[in-house]
Amino acid sequence: xxxxxxxxxxxxxxxxxxxxxxxxxxxxxxxxxxxxxxxxxxxxxxxxxxxxxxxxxxxxxxxxxxxxxxxxxxxxxxxxxxxxxxxxxxxxxxxxxxxxxxxxxxxxxxxxxxxxxxxxxxxxxxxxxxxxxxxxxxxxxxxxxxxxxxxxxxxxxxxxxxxxxxxxxxxxxxxxxxxxxxxxxxxxxxxxxxxxxxxxxxxxxxxxxxxxxxxxxxxxxxxxxxxxxxxxxxxxxxxxxxxxxxxxxxxxxxxxxxxxxxxxxxxxxxxxxxxxxxxxxxxxxxxxxxxxxxxxxxxxxxxxxxxxxxxxxxxxxxxxxxxxxxxxxxxxxxxxxxxxxxxxxxxxxxxxxxxxxxx
Length: 359
Hints:
Number of helices: 10
Helix content: 25-40%
Number of domains: 2
Shape: globular
Oligomer: single chain
Largest sheet: 13 strands, mixed
Strand content: 15-25%
């Protein structure tokens, strides 16, 4: 993987600990200020927060009064934390209810957080939903993805969400220059499109290929450590409401891997982190490094035979990436990126409310 400023062996301050930049036991360096997914306030995060707020305000300004009422929800509403990826109704405004200009403004809002690869990931979810529509009927709708804005953009705390079948992107700005984008869920059914104009599309295939390459590169002993179950789980573990089911990371520690294997794990992490806009990606990569990459573990469940049910995850002290391909004869993927300490901006939000109470 090309070096882009976050190689797992780089020290976050530019110099190695323990006299060896490859040492797996670099001390975790947490932000001295509020603990956040994107660290303390910086010029980058201030600019990003302003960009996201401007895009949200332009989106809301383009709606009529009824649409604006439909799209906006109080930040402290329980709805904000009620995320899911099943095809259910949500509070918000769907893409199908928007005019062309309104959809363009919504796209600009998505682009305030995601880069081109991230935007294509969103589009792939909708493409695959259109494939399901052809196979299963009109209740599958590639325009039934809801945009919800929580609170007042630019007035902290606030945030927004894009959600529908096999997609949940939760953006929170709990305080000035603090930005969270998790939980971030992407699914694909079919995982591989086998017919029609999109034949061969594998929206999440790159992650599976990397994980299989990693397993193939390990020694037999390492592979035994990585495999935590003979059968796949049939679902991601950290689905809504099940965050505490994970307990401590299990599997093969990155500290036990050689450099090539660790780079493959880094590339797996990048399948999610690398979908963010450059300034947000830089900050989130720093977040990963600060957890001490040697403490991350890679785990696999199920057979290693291609085309068969399988599950894998990358699990650090707070960062979690999961991928399950079990349903529909292993042609139905659920994948998620979570920050187990700061999903929905919760850590920063708690600090924000503490400061407010003491004013």
